[in-house]
Amino acid sequence: xxxxxxxxxxxxxxxxxxxxxxxxxxxxxxxxxxxxxxxxxxxxxxxxxxxxxxxxxxxxxxxxxxxxxxxxxxxxxxxxxxxxxxxxxxxxxxxxxxxxxxxxxxxxxxxxxxxxxxxxxxxxxxxxxxxxxxxxx
Length: 137
Description:
Blueprint: H1 7-45, H2 47-53, H3 61-125
Keywords: Nucleus, Repressor, Transcription, Transcription regulation
Domain BHLH: 19-75
Organism: Characodon lateralis
């Protein structure tokens, strides 16, 4: 059995199409206003940056968008470089801390060893006194 189209269904579809046709220009106008407002906000936020590049130029929307993309790309690159430098610095500081700890351990073990050797050196450097002489210590 073939589907039947009733007059009520046709009328409601026509009504939706007509309503959509009436609203479309209004919706499109609001969308363009949002886009233009956002572009103006970008222009005001990045105004000093724009003036550095071309001080006496009037910018159209495409120029503003291109310069915004360029500015944001530069900021991202600088941010990545700073992160990289920070990571290198942290790695260097950790390495320096490890080296300092190793040096302290080595120095403390050298001091302990050298005090034992100092007793022997005093005997060697004072050959005129006998090791049994109590007054040399």
